[in-house]
Every structure is written in C-alpha cells, then in structure tokens.
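User: Fold this, then the next.

Assistant: Folding the first:
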Amino acid sequence: MAFEMDFEDIRRSPATTPSVDLGYSRQSFAAVSVAEFIRHLGYHAIPMGNDTALSIPLAVNAGLGELGRNGLLITPQFGPRVRLSKVFTDLPLETDKPIDIGVQSFCEVCRKCAKHCPAQAISHGDRTANKLTRSTNPGVLKWPVNPEKCIKWWMKNGTWCANCIRVCCYNKPNTRFWHLMHKIALRLVSRKSKMLNKLLVWIDDNLMNC
C-alpha cells in the first residue's frame, strides 16, 4: 500500500517535513485496519511498516511502480512521494505483475537526485548487482545507495531529508495542469529514448521547476 505525502511540504526539504511523520502514521493505521478486516474474514493477517521484509521490492513486484536511482519506489501518480506499508496474509488473492513505465531508462540520464543529495549517498554511475556497503543487498541490478552516508546527514541535519524526493522529475503537484503535463511526460518517457529523456530533464529544470 502506498500513501501520498504532501507536495508543498516535501518542497521544504531538507528542513523539517511533517508529512513524512504523517505518512508513517497513515501507513500504520491503514495496515492495521486492513489486517483486522482480513482477520474478520477468517484468515491470518500481520500488518507491517518498514520492518519484516523490504517494502520497496514487494511494491515493485506488486506493480505499484519501479525502482529509481534514489533507491525509492517511483509510482506513476506521485513519483517517489509515498510511504509504504504491507500486510502478510494467507487470504487467497489474485497477484499483480511488475510494471514498466520507463523509470529505469529515465534515471540513467537524469541523475537529479544524485546531484542534489547533500550526503552524496546516491550513485552517479551505472547500475550494478554488486554490494556497496554492509547495508545493501547484492544480486539485483540497481543503483545502490549508501544508507550510512544518508543517516549521518540526517543526524547532522537534525531532522528528515527528502531532497531525492523533492527534486525527482516524477514528483509533481496533484493539480489539473500538472496532471496533464505529467501524463504527457509519462507517455514520452515510456518510449525510452535517451535523447528525448535528456530533453525532458532540461525542460523540467528550466521550464517546469515548480
């Protein structure tokens, strides 16, 4: 399950962003509520937030979005501006499949999250299946982030940091105008053209920086 965080609040990063805390509260409440509903149906259900299994790989496999350079789930609707929770259950369910909306090819040329990361914890290079630190898992082709650098910056900053969410081209306000622009951009990104993606990054930097 993915829960949107407030766009205007995230724009304040790396200052305090209360919507991050609110996102954690919403995800916990929803997971517990869904689990309780499933139990009333007669099945087992265990609600979970960030603990017990990694939420982002599960969300990718469930088709909620793709894995971005910033190590976060990039959703078609809100980009990386979401918090995730999950419910483990033996309730028979129809499974979804991963989606391909062009995030991987776009992240190859964008690099905005890496440029604006104050901790420089996000890779500027190519994807790799190798292990970066003791906190990253090998064996999956991705851009590994350095969580040790990230958490050290959080401690130095004294609050959250959401720069990699704030600057992401997929992160746009949920208004009629931006919904239309975002829909058009998603169609163009799905073509996976390197030159076109570079043009879209330039447009986002110079004409659509909201």
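Now the next one, as you asked:
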Amino acid sequence: MKVFFSFYYRPDHYRASQVVSSWLANNHQHEAAGFVETAAFEEVEREGIKAVKRWIDEQLEGTSVTVILIGADSNTKPYIKYALQKSWEQGNGMVGIYIHQLKDQNGHTAIKGNNTFGPIFKSNRDDKLYFWDRFKTYDWVEDYGNSDFAYWIDLAARRAEHRVIV
C-alpha cells in the first residue's frame, strides 16, 4: 500500500520523519509519498503555487490513503487543504494524526493543532465539510502510534472502499 503524508514542512518535518520512519520500518512492503527533505520541498515551493500543486498531484498518484500529520499550524496551510481536497476527489482513505507531542530536532514539543481543515469536503450525500466530521484523528503519543499506526492506515483504507464516514 502506498500512503501519502501531508504536513507543514518547516516546523513539522522532524516530527513527520518519526512517523514516516515508523511506517516504513514496520511495513517493509509499503511505500510513502509526499515526504522529502525540507530543502527539496522548498525548491518546489520557490517555483510557485502551481508547481506545489503539481508536485502534490504527482505524489498522490498510486496512493490509497492520505495521512495528515497535524502540527500546531497545519490547519492554516493551503497546500495541506489542497492535498486533502485532491485525496477526497481521488477516493483515498484519510486519517489525521496529532504530532504535537513528538519532539523536534531541538527537543521541543508544540501546541496541539486543529483538525477542521475546512470547509473543503463537499458531497451530494451530506453536508459534512470538515475533516473531523469525516475522518478519524488520533494522537501519536496518547493513542500508541508506534504500535497501532498500521491498523489506523488499514482502517482508513477499508472505510474509503465503502466511503464510510466516522
């Protein structure tokens, strides 16, 4: 299974690397997309909004689940909202993970972010426009992400198959 990871690069790259590393270490047959070094992302970002959207579109190709790593300011980032909307249109399963309690490269944690990300999810079946309305969110530390992450991913994939909304 190929999983797309979306997060706010500058403040959360180090925290995100811990989650992505856990996914790859414990799931050798799986792949991760959307995770590159900060400098590589900044190079794409310098090319402008269209380049970032094109990069996200390319990263999403072949993925079945999108993981939103929620840091202190993730909710305000247009690229994350774009990735969510594209993931929704593609039919990906989605799961949110609070990463604020993971330490950064300087040993600091952050404040807990917000999981609304909306309004962005439009459907003919209902009026649920916000991430928290549609998808499960976990806390990496409090909900034992190191041991339960693969289950969260699997559950998101199964819900997507049936478009189950939490």
